[in-house]
Design a protein that fits this description.
With about 325 residues, the protein is α+β, with helices and mostly antiparallel strands. The protein is about 25% helix and about 15% strand. Helix 5 runs antiparallel to helix 7.
Length: about 325
């Protein structure tokens, strides 16, 4: 084979190879490597994903706040500037964890014996944990009195809701005689529904059973095994049959040989019942009306002393 034919044959073979390569590329023009495929799939998923909430940024850049996210609800420092809600119904407090001592100590141990009027308003027996907590304070220890005139089994734990002096809903608790547990639950429920203000309603054991300290702190309370001030006679509070309401603004006033004593002494200006001031209990007050409707006697009607904070009831 001469040189000319050899060159022509090589050229033909080269043309065939080039054509084959071009046809191969044309047939596979949409193919890609595994890496390229994963990259394209990732980009596709990003583009078709569910849209993020306003302000979200999947690229790591600074988020842009949407108009809907602006305003009081968008920043914690403005949380208190939102429009006030309507008066919350008691059931809106359901599911929250109580911070009250009695509620924590009773827990759910007395739930089977619980009497519920509405969410947040109930009474139940005093648990053993709560009994131990009050013993030596509102309830006497054996060292103080071997046989108290009332047993723990006769007492009931009462949980309520109330409006504080800032107009905000708050929890409250009392211990009372079982004979008035239903009364108190109903009374405080009506007070709550009418947004009646009670500064605080705590067990007097939070004050180590000190009635003076409780009154000075304007604490509404019930059971406390103690005597009447200046006597050896057990108070109605000792039987869980009396309630003191907003005691700082409704003091206990006694008279003896033209002298006057006021309890708590810091509340002297509120002993003048002819004056007008907030939280004063008189016969036009809702608290007075509700307690007397339930058969309670008001200490403000007594002759020899005036106990404007005090409502008591006889045993059933």
């Amino acid at each position: 084979m001469d040189r000319t034919k050899l060159i022509k044959m090589f050229a033909v073979l080269t043309a065939i190879v080039v054509l084959a390569v071009l046809l191969s590329k044309a047939a596979s023009r949409n193919s890609m490597t595994l890496t390229e495929h994963e990259k394209q799939l990732s980009q596709s998923q990003t583009q078709t994903a569910v849209p993020q909430e306003d302000g979200a940024n999947t690229d790591g850049d600074t988020a842009q706040t949407s108009p809907a996210a602006e305003g009081p609800a968008a920043s914690p420092e403005n949380a208190d500037r939102s429009e006030p809600d309507e008066t919350p119904a008691p059931e809106e407090n359901a599911g929250t964890t109580s911070l009250l001592t009695g509620a924590l100590l009773n827990g759910t141990s007395q739930e089977k014996q619980r009497h519920t009027l509405a969410e947040g308003f109930y009474y139940e027996p005093v648990s053993d944990s709560l009994r131990r907590y009050i013993t030596g304070f509102s309830y006497p220890s054996q060292a103080e009195e071997a046989q108290p005139e009332i047993t723990v089994e006769e007492l009931r734990y009462v949980h309520i809701l109330h409006y504080d002096f800032d107009g905000k809903p708050a929890e409250g608790e009392l211990i009372c005689n079982r004979d008035i547990a239903q009364d108190l639950t109903e009374i405080f429920y009506e007070l709550y529904r009418n947004e009646y203000r009670l500064e605080r309603v705590l067990l007097i054991d939070e004050y180590d059973g000190d009635d003076d300290a409780s009154m000075a702190d304007n604490n509404t309370s019930c059971f406390n095994y103690r005597v009447v001030e200046g006597t050896d006679t057990l108070s109605r509070h000792a039987f869980g049959l009396a309630v003191d309401v907003n005691p700082f603004y409704n003091p206990y006033v006694t008279y003896n040989n033209r002298s006057r004593s006021i309890f708590p002494p810091e509340a002297e200006e509120y002993a003048d019942r002819s004056a007008e001031f907030p939280y004063k209990i008189d016969e036009n007050d809702l608290c007075y009306k509700l307690f007397t409707e339930h058969g309670f006697i008001w200490g403000g009607n007594w002759n020899n002393s005036k106990d404007y904070q005090h409502f008591e009831k006889k045993r059933n």
